[in-house]
Design brief:
Blueprint (H helix, E strand, L loop, with lengths): L4 H25 L11 E6 L7 E3 L5 E7 L2 E7 L5 E7 L8 E5 L2 E5 L4 E3 L4 E3 L4 E4 L4 E5 L2 E5 L6 E6 L8 E4 L4 E9 L2 E10 L2 E11 L4 E11 L2 E10 L7 E10 L9 E3 L11 E11 L2 E11 L8 E10 L5 E5 L7 E8 L2 E6 L5 E7 L2 H7 L4 H24 L1 H18 L8 H17 L1 H4 L2 H6 L9 H23 L4 H20 L5
Antiparallel strand pairs: 1-28, 2-3, 3-4, 4-5, 6-7, 7-8, 8-9, 10-11, 11-12, 12-13, 14-15, 15-16, 16-17, 18-19, 19-20, 20-21, 22-23, 23-24, 24-25, 26-27, 27-28
Keywords: Membrane, Transmembrane, Transmembrane helix
């Protein structure tokens, strides 16, 4: 055993460092988005990459539609997101198809005509189709209609302005609203209508001016009692690079004569420093009397190996004093699109894949938190990939430590030049002088290796006060014990033991600190 001590001792330290590195990788890739909020839980897959309707039943179950080639799958989940039932419908489906499903009644739109479940045409040449909770809106020939799912009759609601080809519906608790938006140059005009028995009643109208270089990309609105809020997402084209997006919000009330002002929003990154970038798929709603936005954005995450940036799901709450409070609702290295709120405690989104997209949810429901905490095969693979990437950093960090290693090597070479073969004799002062020179180099050039960025990235067990000096001295003691064992068991002379001491010490240190050097 003593003969093997010279490699067993440093090997134990290095293997322990690699194990801690892997454990840190597991911790990073499985980190919850925020306290008391679950990780993503996969509940299905779909072949399309856009909106999928969700219904919450009075009993607290969820009906989620997933799309496959020529097949609609309606899956029913309980409040713990355990699937309790499923039904499939054979209809032609692609990413343009929109479906109304209420109980067993199915009506769909193929971007041209509206059909019943048997494939019979109900309405031809319909430009737009809006499936809602218990009714359907559609646009045909510049007119907005309501389609009654029970008897398949159509009622004209309002004639839209020429050139207007889309509306934004909003299902309130008691009423159904829709918004029209018209943009001319940098003028944006918004009208809010309430659906009545006699058609549509305009309840609010306003206009905004945006920057002349910007164009409206998306709009949304929300109504709660008499409170009204608008969201505008604009894009400014750049002469070089990607277009820059901007988000604005305005708050007012129905019946108010005061013109609301657009407030530009910047979303702070709740998990990192600075702001979230490229917010998209933004929706606005009132949650517990407070205005809140749900969106996907690029923000900080430790689930990735190098960039520490990925698209995840976020909410932004706008307080009464105008403060913006962001919260992260997903934490994954994969791209997230089309986030959707199921209720106050659960959100859903698509995770893009090469052939199929995964449907995931996250929630504050304790049952979901527990269910989503299980490590998946993907978690293990991502943790292994991140660990191997960190090991690659260790190899590069070793190059930086040459500033330490070169000094004992130069000392040994110079002593051979001066003393020659006499150094092969057991000269204690030579060995200890070489060790002292190396240790002096580690302290003199301490800040070259132990940089501030390293401590910002490293875990807590490496960043306590004086940690770099404590680890340096502790590993020096281990290296010294292992080095001294070679004197009696392998008859190593002082030069070999000096070089071995420095090499073993460096390998042990970089196994712990190297992954966080850059």
């Amino acid at each position: 055993m003593r003969k093997q001590l010279f490699w067993i001792l440093p090997s134990i330290i290095i293997i322990t460092g690699i194990f801690l590195m892997f454990n840190q990788s597991i911790t990073d890739v499985t980190e919850q988005p925020e306290a008391n909020w679950s990780r993503g839980l996969e509940i299905g897959t779909t072949t399309v990459d856009k909106t999928f309707p969700v219904q919450e039943t009075p009993g607290g179950n969820f009906i989620i539609q997933t799309y496959e080639q020529d097949k609609l799958r309606a899956q029913i989940f309980n409040h713990e997101f355990k699937q309790i039932n499923e039904k499939t419908y054979d209809i032609p489906l692609d990413k343009w198809t929109r479906v109304f499903l209420n109980h067993d009644q199915l009506i769909y739109h193929d971007y041209n005509d509206i059909y019943d479940q048997d494939g019979d045409v109900i309405v031809s040449n319909a430009k737009r189709f809006y499936p809602l909770g218990s009714t359907i809106l559609y646009i045909k020939e510049n007119n907005l209609y309501e389609l009654n799912p029970d008897d398949l009759s159509s009622t004209k609601i309002v004639e839209l302005n020429k050139g207007m080809e889309d509306i934004i519906p909003f299902q309130g608790k008691k009423q159904l609203y829709f918004m029209t938006e018209q943009s001319l140059n940098n003028d944006v005009k918004l009208n809010i209508y309430e659906l009545t028995d006699n058609g549509a009643k305009r309840v609010y109208s306003t206009s905004f001016q945006i920057d002349a270089m910007q164009t409206v990309e998306d709009t949304d609105f929300a109504v709660r009692d008499s409170n009204l809020a608008f969201m505008l997402e604009t894009v400014q084209k750049q002469s070089q690079g990607s277009p820059e997006s901007y988000t604005y919000v305005a708050k007012t009330s129905i019946g108010s004569n005061r013109e609301p002002s657009l407030k530009p929003l910047t979303f702070p990154d709740p998990a990192g420093e600075g702001s979230l970038s490229e917010p998209n798929d933004i929706t606005i709603s009132y949650q517990n009397e407070t205005l809140q936005l749900l969106f996907s954005a690029n923000g900080f995450t430790e689930t990735t190996y190098q960039e520490n940036q990925a698209f995840n799901v976020y909410t932004a709450t706008i307080t009464d004093n105008g403060e913006i409070q962001s919260a992260r609702k997903s934490n994954t290295a994969k791209g997230t699109v089309d986030p959707k709120r199921l209720n106050n405690s659960t959100v859903m989104w698509l995770e893009q894949g090469s052939e199929r997209n995964n449907i995931l949810i996250s929630s504050s429901n304790p049952a979901v938190i527990d269910k989503a905490s299980t490590l998946s095969q993907d978690d293990w693979l991502r943790a292994l990939g991140k660990t191997f990437g960190m090991l690659a950093k260790v190899l590069i960090t070793i190059l930086a430590t040459t500033i330490w290693f070169i000094w004992p090597v130069v000392f040994v070479v110079l002593m051979y030049v001066v003393k020659g073969r006499k150094l092969d004799e057991d000269i204690s002062w030579f060995f200890y002088t070489g060790i002292v020179i190396y240790m002096l180099a580690t302290f003199i050039f301490h800040d070259i290796i132990f940089i501030d960025g390293m401590f910002a990235r490293a875990p807590d067990y490496l960043t306590f006060t004086g940690s770099s000096y404590i680890y340096t001295l502790f590993f020096a003691l281990i290296a010294f014990i292992a080095t001294q064992s070679t004197k009696a068991t392998h008859d190593w002379h002082a030069p070999a033991r000096i070089i071995y001491f420095a090499g073993a010490h460096i390998l042990m240190l970089v196994a712990y600190f190297g992954p966080y050097y850059f």
